[in-house]
Known about the structure:
The chain is α/β, with parallel strands linked by helices. It is 41% helix and 17% strand. The protein has six helices and five strands, in the order E-H-E-H-E-H-E-H-E-H-H. The chain has helices at residues 17-27, 49-59, 75-81, 94-110, 130-138, 149-158; strands at 5-10, 32-37, 66-70, 86-90, 115-119. The termini are far apart. The model has no long low-confidence stretch (mean pLDDT 94).
Amino acid sequence: MKKNIAVYPGTFDPITNGHIDLVERSLGIFDEVIIALAPNPKKIPLFTIEERIEMIKAATKGLENVKTDVFNGLLVNYAKKKKAKAIIRGLRAVSDFEYEFQMALMNRRLDSRIETVFLMPSEEYSYLTSTIIKEIAAFKGSVKGLVPKIVEDKLKEKFV
């Protein structure tokens, strides 16, 4: 039987409970979700790729059919290589939509067989971004309940 696979790309610097929420929602639609870590040359990450992979794997340990991977290059090429039918993108607010819509249309142009599926996180995570998490942690604020425990611990280590 053919698997219904989706790719959930991002920098995940760090992964948040909002990301985990979207992975869980995606598993209700797809047989397998690949969390695809994408190095972004426009961003200066706090965590190394290895640290992010470690945190993602720990945060998704109890979730079946979730894989973690790293990719470079065009997302649609990666998705095609993984035999994915869809790309998962999260929408928190209207401000996310314009950029995500443009990317989805370009990806469709590059390969019309791969759909983009937009999911909204639970209301409690609708304002959450990795950038906000890093800012709170840098100023010694609590991120408890906003990120997996491993991320909370790693942020404390980074901002001692």
